[in-house]
Amino acid sequence: MQSIYYERARDAVDALRLAQQDGARFIGGGTNLLDLMKGDVEHPLRLVDITHAGLDRIEELPGGGLRIGAGVRNADAARHAVVRERYPLLAQAMLSGASAQLRNMATMGGNLMQRTRCPYFTDTAFSHCNKRQPGSGCDAREGYQRMHAILGASPACVAVNPSDMSVALAALDAVVLLRGPQGNREVALGDFHRLPGDTPQQDTVLQPGELIVAIDLPPSRMARHSHYLKLRDRASYAFALVSVAAALEMEGGSVRQARIALGGVAHKPWRRPEAEAMLQGRPLDDAQCRAAAQRLLEGAQPLAGNRFKVDLAQRAIVRALRIAAEGA
Asked: Is the dihedral angle over the CA atoms 307, 308, 309, 311 positive or is it negative?
């Protein structure tokens, strides 16, 4: 049996120091990492506990933005008064994910780092998974495909990102704050997760030893006209077949700005600014919504087992936009 060393970081500086040791991984709530360790998918040699590293604060930023620490629990963020008032889209997305018990444990940073729930990745009985064993192949391509990607996939991997929270953050133009051995840097949420390409084992652009310290939300004028729609096989405790984060800034009866992000369809939250631009400067009607949906899904390459997702996503986009336009 492999030994695992556990160390508790006092602060972010201490966490970075401890993470320089071989085989070290950061752990917050542990709701995903511990499951993967139990399933023999992840094999860290050291766990660096960052729950007491001072990353659990929510702070208002000058100009109306908000900074949410990476250690903030999902439940606490979803219930926070400023999140509910200025970013209800984010609260809706987080409350649609997992169970209340898991939301009480899961952290913002950990949610960003969630790994796919593709059964060919999580079950080591399947020997061909490029994400788990690079170069071994992809059993999903000839297997059960209902939950898999229709956009941005590659011959190496058709898995999808499971996070509801990340879809809302993508639509809100969030920025991820990172700290590492080479210093601090900021990464737009839309650039944080990677498409699989030839290296599907790399889920994000995090460098070795880097730590997520916070997520910044810019000021938003879309709070009143936003909606998170999640379509799934069960009413609760299920991952999305398709989800839509829709946010609009309305001026009179016309759309001034639009943001649309999709979940459950790709290796990362899926956005296309050109699809959003099609809605701007005109009244929102079903024809415009359908045109934007078609543009957002342009280039979709479904598998035999998930072709239904294309039509499902088109309908979901139209529905989410119409609900968002109606306002709170």
From this structure: positive
Kindly report the backbone phi and psi dihedral angles of residue 93, in degrees, each rounded to the nearest multiple of 5, phi listed first.
-65, -45
Task: Count CA atoms closer than 13 A to 195's CA, side-chain side.
Answer: 12
Find the farthest-apart pair of alpha carbons in the chain and give their distance in angstroms, rounded.
Answer: 65
At 50-80, the pLDDT tens digits run: 999 999 999 999 999 999 999 999 999 999 9
Measured at the CA of 267, the angle between CA 162 and CA 117, to 5 degrees, comes to: 35
CA–CA separation, 308 and 146 (whole Å) = 9
- Look at the domain 226-326 and name its fold: Enolase-like; domain 1 (3.30.390)
Sheet holding 66-69, edge to edge: 58-60, 66-69, 211-217, 175-180, 183-188
β-strand partners of 194: none
Task: Specify the pTM.
Answer: 0.97
Q: Domain residue spans in the chain?
A: 1-54, 226-326
Residue 234: other Cβ atoms inside 10 A: 7
Q: What is the pLDDT of residues 193-240, one digit of tens each?
A: 999 999 999 999 999 999 999 999 999 999 999 999 999 999 888 999
What residues does 138 pair with on adjacent strands?
129
Q: What CATH class has 1-54?
A: alpha beta
| Domain pair 1-54 / 226-326, same fold | no
Query: Percent helix, strand, coil in the chain (nearest 5)?
Result: 30, 25, 45
Q: What is the structure's pLDDT at 1?
A: 57
CB 257 within 8 A of CB 222: yes
